[in-house]
Amino acid sequence: MSTDDKNRAVAAAILPLVGGAGNITSVAHCMTRLRLGLRDRSLVRDEALKALPAVMGVVEDDTYQIVLGPGTVARVTPEFEALVAEAHEEDQEEAGAPASSADDLAAQGAAIRAARKARNRTPFKLFLRRIANVFVPLIPALIGCGIIAGLNGLLINLGRLPSVTPALAAIASGFMALIAVFVGFNTAKEFGGTPILGGAVAAIIVFPGVAKVDAFGQTLSPGQGGVLGALGAAVLAVYVEKWCRRWVPEALDVLVTPTLTVLVSGLVTIFGLMFVAGEVSNAIGEFADWLLAHAGAGAGFVLGGLFLPLVMLGLHQALIPIHTTLIEQQGSTVLLPILAMAGAGQVGAAMAVYLKLPRNGSIRRTIRSALPAGFLGVGEPLIYGVSLPLGRPFVTACVGGAFGGGFIGLFSMLGAKVGSTAIGPSGWALFPLLDGDGGLGRTIAIYAGGLLTGYLAGFVATYFWGFGDRLLEEFDVDTEAAAETVVAAGGTGVGAPDAPAPASAPAKA
Fold first, then answer.
1. How far apart are the first and last CA of the chain?
2. Which residues carry out catalysis?
């Protein structure tokens, strides 16, 4: 049995004895112990655990700790995490679509979402998802620091509280100054390495002392390569660490593995990755500026129109490192306000659907409940509950996003660039994070104009071209009356010829 198989066998033996994957809330390890957060302590079979040959003992503290020994625990923990993740995924797939609702579209949307999730499980899309998992945990800090930076800029422009603004600047900028370390930590954690080693290697990038290093005739700059360099450095550290775990004797693992991991990855980072990642980061910033300055309206139209399909395909996750790089370089990402217009088109399309189906109380209730979230940039209830199952309204929603994006891009061409100091929020929730070249007032006005354009274009396109005769005939019915008829007929559907039958695919107009 290979070393990997042996470690997986140990993990597989432990999992059922601690109550299975459903009983695990957290997984971590220290030098010698596998530390587990448990939902129900009574499900653990202590004596059976202690009887396992690989287990040296158990300790109960704030977490349930299984003593495996140095070296072994670092090898078994990733296998244990993988088994827990696989079990959770299987449970979700077996659960299937959510419970039925009064609206047939909800079932259709759930089926479409499940199918999309299955299609998205390609190696490339799974890789993008892992990259997204590195950056998504950083979003709360990006939002908080971004809002504080905006507040600080406002106070400086108004000449208010000069004694406070330096403190606000420090609070807003501290996280961004060390974001590479957090990216390295999360990357190592996501790719199956020791998180602190990933953070240690990524910290080299922001260490001021790299300015004294002469790398092939060029002096490095602290921060050169940014988050992309940190990402690459931490991934390299994970592979070096895994190689060491495989070949270094367990008795020497605790000393040799971290030393070699930091040394080898650090040298490659200093004498290669920082330069390459720096060039790529600069190219991203320069291309974004050039694109919006020379083809802003067209680029905005295309990006705003294609963002919803990109989300459906899972390809939008590739944009997260680009957003973060732009924020790190320029203080804001000019792409997010354009992409946010996709949500505006979705809201406009939903309002048109509401008016086009005056007799369908079920769909109208769904829209009324989902519109507030839609205005705040949370579009999934409208996408999966309304427009995507209907088919053509999803396309017209994309048209609304295209026109909104083109509006924002047009002003970028005219020298009024609109950016966001953080990623995550959209719709109205993006207002506190806006940043631009022409002052806060003009920036807010341009973004608001883009939203209104997206709402209007999505509404008009959906109202006039989003429904064919067949779609109206199928869905513009009194669903409540139809349901009462079904009940009166004994639930067989007899006497309810106008009631729409559930479908497994989007309706065709």
1. 58
2. 30
